[in-house]
Amino acid sequence: MTTTHNRLRLLAALVLSLSLGVPVSARETPEDNKTLRVFIFAGQSNMVGSDSKAKDIQRFPPFAGLDRPQQSVLFSYSIGREDKHTSDGWVDLQPVGDVVGPELSFARRVTENSGAPIAIIKCAAGGTTLGGDWNPDEPGGFKLYPLALDLVRASLAELDRKKVAYRIEGFMWHQGENDMFDAGFKAAYARNLRNFLASWRRDLKAPELRFYIGELCTKTVWGMDNRDNMFAIRTAQKAVTDSDPLAEYIPTSHDAVEIGGGAGLHYHYGTLGQLQHGVNHADAYLRTVGKTPNAERPLKYWPYAAGSPVKLFILAGHRNMEGERAFTGELKASRGLGALADDNAKIAFKYSLGGGYKTSHGWEPLGPAGLYDTLGPELSFAKTLQGKVPGNIAIAKFTHSGSQMNDWTPQGTTAKDCNLYEPFIAFIRSAVQELKAKGHPVEVAGIFYHAGENDMAFGPYRRDAAKWLQSTVAQSRLDLALPALKWHVSQQSPPAEEGLDSIDVTANLAATAAADPAFIHLKVFDLPPPEEKLVINTGGIVRLGELLARSHLQHR
Predict the structure, then answer these.
(1) Considering the entire predicted model, what is its pTM?
(2) Rounded Cα distance, 541 and 548, in Å
(3) CA separation for the pair 233, 229 (Å, rounded)
(4) What angle (nearest 5°) sits at the alpha carbon of residue 282, between those of residues 281 and 283?
(5) How far apart are CA 119 and CA 7, in angstroms?
(6) Domain 3-288 has CATH 3.40.50.1110
(7) Which of 154, 155, 159 is nearest to 21 (CA)?
(8) What is the Cα–Cα distance from 347 to 543, expressed in whole angstroms?
(9) If you count Cβ atoms within 10 Å of the first and of the last residue's Cβ in the chain, which end, N or C, has fewer?
(10) Which of 2.60.40.420, 3.30.465.10, 3.40.50.1110, 2.30.110.10 would CATH assign to domain 315-555?
């Protein structure tokens, strides 16, 4: 008898006293840890896991081991279009066809923080539309709505036959990229999505079924050359989740993306991004059942003497300032760098990461606080300054790894939900006021900004990057009433690609610095070689922090 059948028998034995194989009400209390929670995953290529590789999971310490089967989690699936991968019943959760889907990290995150057993039913196919393939009323193309419905019903029927008590706990949906290329589908996306949610609730006889709607993958070339199209789909998705109390919009633009070849950035998350994508959905679900993982890092004692002045350092930027591929586990294992992973209670730290996706609980001790067990250059930045800068040091960090440099400009873009300038300035003002409220005179010692990496891989953005940054710098000095505010702008070596090399972004930034004595252009071209184009790894992030700190010491 197979392992899966044994597990089904065990589940049946555990829950027989609760039910005779009928679905349990979704209103049952989350403290019931015997009823099987069933989650449905559906969508197109970024739900499939396209451009991911199970063998690469071991490269990312927070997700080690997810390439192996999770024998405590049931999995039923139909994945693909013409050539489908199907489980033909329940199996152990594991990668399918060497592809990493968000369900892998979702399941581990949920099981680590909830005592209940879970099962996942997944139906996904790349290049499909809500207006056509997933249309409940008139399915076209690959007719995925009836296919997915049949898969869900058959999978639940097997649980019924085994007398396993279950409840349908949530529906994870990630789709929309293809609808944005059809004018009719794009205009009707909100209406179609409402109908999609209502149809599932009707057809599964689950009127209280919760939906988790994943943001499109915007940290890609499509986030630049299809900015207005993606904004239209996001706006439609948010309109639905804002009006439906059982639907939640899940931001993902801060997640990693696979770096493409000659075309620059691709339009899929890839391995790391898929794993982060799953954590986003898991945390959203855990919040709804009151089991949010505790991530508080309180600053137990205020580190500065009453009335003493504080130098406030502002760190800002995109994916490498956020620390997308700098992992705390690697830092701890690095010879001579492990101490950076320890909290430093002598330095107060305030942050907003991922465009506000993760924020500090007031002021915290300086330490690794990044998304998905990552860290930024602030750790080595502070270590380099301590002992060389007299007095008190505080650090405030504002990042969004899914942003482009035009998102930071005062004028913003037509994708208004991406505009960061006003939140950035408000963040700085808040940090200053909070320190003053504690009785400290505050000196803003400078803004340390790492230039946008994505912008360097797309011609129109690379051409305008220096101009955009110049407008941000000038307006920030006016709005903060700091006319001599220093901006230390670090720039990594821009990617060499045909069609991009003619745009000398380094010269453009250097020209800006030459015309502005308070604009310090720092060429950090000697960082340790990254494993992927544009993205700095752990050693490079540590080095970046050191170089930014030395820039301050040199120009103070």
Answers:
(1) 0.94
(2) 11
(3) 7
(4) 95
(5) 12
(6) yes
(7) 159
(8) 20
(9) N
(10) 3.40.50.1110
